[in-house]
Protein 1
Amino acid sequence: MGKLNAAILPVTPFQQNCTLIWDDETKEGIVIDPGGDVERIAEAIGKTGINVQQIVLTHGHIDHVGGAEELKSRLKTQIIGPHIADKALCEGIEKQAAMFGMPGGYRNAYPDRWLEEGDIVSFSGHEFEVFHCPGHAPGHIVLFNKVARFAVVGDVLFNGSVGRTDLPGGDHATLIASIREKLFEWGDDVSFLCGHGPGSTIGQERKSNPFLT
């Protein structure tokens, strides 16, 4: 088992962080939230030489899901996640595109497997535990690697902010509970990447995030 590597590609007009994570020895890895700009994502995968084991979705919003089916076809792999509570969102991507006035190319997503709390996403010996964290979206999941003290949290928590809750299925109190009762339990030393903008640490957000202090 080699060292974990991660790279972020901002995609779609929402500048959503599509994340590549891979083992530097085996080159096996995963793609998280390929929301669009699939050509760029495929080019990055080719340059790094990643052997993509799975495409993982944190939740069903268009900027996280819109390019998943196209990338699946290119890579001949599976889509897993999010939680089944986001089934309607995943299957309504084309409607979301129309709602936001976005151009064509975004496709409904049909995951091969939904993820549940406690499931494990793994490759080359690296294990990421799945946590179901609703609030931003009903089926939002996050991934936590206990050994590396590293997480990918999608749109649940940001550097200095939290996920918006004014979209269908959102609920602010539920989101804050997800952060406090799950993410904050990991420990202050845990670093994370999020769905938009720069990452942070749990300790920094516990200390200074205005939505949580």
Note: The domain at 4-208 is CATH 3.60.15.10 (Metallo-beta-lactamase; Chain A).
Protein 2
Amino acid sequence: MFNRRSVLGFFAALVVAIGVCGVPSARADNAEARASAFIESLAERAISALTEENVAREDRVERFRELLNDNFAVKTIGRWVLGRYWKRASKEQQTEYLQLFEDLIVTTYVDRFEAYSDEQIVVSKAEAGSGSDFLVKTTISRPSGGNPVKVSWRVRARDETFKIVDVVVEGVSMGQTQRSEFASVIRRNGGTVEGLLSKLRVDLKKGA
């Protein structure tokens, strides 16, 4: 199986980010404030959709998939994670890879929302980055104690909406971590994208 911390640790962060306080969203009258409000709204929707009791797993999977595609630039992330191998893949391989990539995220994290225990994510500030990107800086605290975790969400603005393109946990880019792991899998399996696709198929079948 793939390293579960690196398989889009985006959702590892999101799992504990479903209680939010901090920067108010009511006066989101500039780009930085809107980016912060986007992260707040995502957390609120996650707790509403994914922590409800007595929901069949199939329904929870569909809610999770919808939340993922509404708020994360899944195809953009997937292509970047595959790196130089994206152009080496056939159209059919690219299509299958993006679907397997999405399925991997869903099957890895959908059940973890049941473990929600009032963690809080405090939005401290948002900063403009390169191009249309913004970095929303947050701190996650746990009611059980332990050191808080610093998580920065890289979001991209497009047509007045935002999508998450990376999450940086304690200074480590989850996208870069996943990119390195996929490249390693490809090198160990003949240097072809088919090697990665084959492993993804097997891992998803095991996790089904």
Note: The chain has one domain: 9-207.
